[in-house]
Amino acid sequence: MSVKYLLMSGLALALAASAAPALAGAPAASAAQGKKLASAQSCTMCHVKGGMAKPFSAYADKSASRLKDAILDPKKTLGASTMMPPYQGKLSAEQLDALVAYIKAGGH
Predict the structure, then answer these.
(1) pTM exceeding the 0.85 threshold for the entire prediction
(2) Looking at the domain 27-104, which fold is it?
(3) 28-42: per-residue pLDDT in tens?
């Protein structure tokens, strides 16, 4: 093995190790943002234990795409009788991702 190869390998490992904490914190930060958003959008008025709708924890096992569909167009996804308002055009992609991260974290 050449010295150049060893140096490059070591540099790659060092960069990967330094990026790991930032990547590990991303979902938690996103879920925290989702929690704030859920409160600001009044989602938590219904999606709590004993509320008018199932608590967020009941949806934690759903796929991200299903959750996004339900948030953006609830009548299409959940049925015509749902009282949940649509959020299509009301949330940015980042906000939608944060809200989904919060729901997938069990609403914690």
Answers:
(1) no
(2) Cytochrome Bc1 Complex; Chain D, domain 2 (1.10.760)
(3) 779 999 999 999 999
